[in-house]
């Protein structure tokens, strides 16, 4: 009796262990897709990844549209294969038409569950096969753009987009949805770009990956820019060295520190401006024209080519991309227009700096401040004091460096001081577009 009980217990334990082994893996392979359900085109890759600790056995992927089934992937896996990665397109086989379809996926592992049949994972996902590019229509017609200045195009796109804006050369400036199908894009004519390379077009890429490029009517206005020769005094170089020596410990003289700051920091600052440009309101925040520093005189102009001289010899050359305005020492600096602070800190050559976003990628920059009176995230009203002028950064004396930036590209501020120019080239177009294309 005792032996029988022991045998029964051993059998029971064995059965329990066998059951645990048999049922320990009842889940099918884990599946992930690189594309979410929604629109998809023939040229878009779908990457499917599989994982299963018991090993993969087979995979079948098909597209079901109406009564028609189109096989896309059929694969058997070698034993001990625990991970798989398959790349395919929905148009590998002919017959799929524009419109909705179901992507059906069945993956089976090598588990002993179900007497060796394995566990299966079955997915059915809703996609829309879409191969035609989106329709783009420019609503604004007159685009008179000065070298170094800005232009605005208002347009419609007939479907949801992944990316849209204006392109020329290797540059892209994003457009922002205003209402319904209407988008607006502020873009520059860079001061240093040859006119033959400046051919702005509207780009729209829909969620399926289809792309449309549409030309716009534009007229380029020539503009020349001044130059200046700036002697570097020992006092100025000592001041710069004191401010930037920690950034360039390898530089051995004040002149070397200045030259590094004047070149390397400009590139760094440009990247910060581009990052700030992406932090923008999709709709305009500004109202009317932009204020300039009260009772100020210009001390440097936009796109001014500056040649720097040391002991009578040229040592550097850079382009000044703002307007220097001088008033009283430590004069209060008003915000040029309504907006939101997106930067309030040290910014390389600009020293203590504030950047205010006004929407559509339009931002104003206030450099060389002696005091910053706002912080990132503050909502600012036109005329609100944001700080005081100073000589921080690469300033040669107390003044304000005032810049206007479009999605990271600095443009001529003078246009934005002109109420008529803003109405004719920006706000008037936006108002006309609202009337021409009501919200959907």
Identify the notable features of this structure and list them briefly.
440 residues, alpha+beta, Immunoglobulin-like, Glucose Permease (Domain IIA), 3 domains, elongated
Architecture overview:
Helices cover 17% and strands 41% of the residues. With 440 residues, it is of the alpha+beta class. The chain has three domains: 26-129, Sandwich (Immunoglobulin-like), CATH 2.60.40; 136-222, Immunoglobulin-like (Sandwich); 227-412, Glucose Permease (Domain IIA) (Distorted Sandwich). Helix 2 packs across helix 3. Mean pLDDT is 91; it is low at 11-23.
What is the strand and helix layout of this fold?
Blueprint: H1 2-23, E1 30-33, E2 39-40, E3 46-51, E4 56-65, E5 68-76, E6 83-88, E7 99-109, E8 120-129, E9 136-138, E10 144-146, E11 150-157, E12 161-168, E13 171-174, E14 176-179, E15 182-188, E16 201-206, E17 211-215, E18 219-221, E19 227-231, H2 234-244, H3 254-278, E20 297-300, E21 304-310, E22 313-320, E23 323-326, E24 332-334, E25 339-346, E26 352-357, E27 362-369, E28 371-372, E29 379-380, E30 385-388, E31 400-406, E32 409-411, H4 419-436
Parallel strand pairs: 2-8, 10-18, 19-21
Antiparallel strand pairs: 1-3, 3-6, 4-5, 4-7, 7-8, 9-11, 11-15, 12-13, 12-16, 14-15, 16-17, 20-23, 21-22, 23-31, 24-30, 25-26, 25-29, 26-27, 27-31, 28-30, 31-32
Helix pairs in contact: 2-3
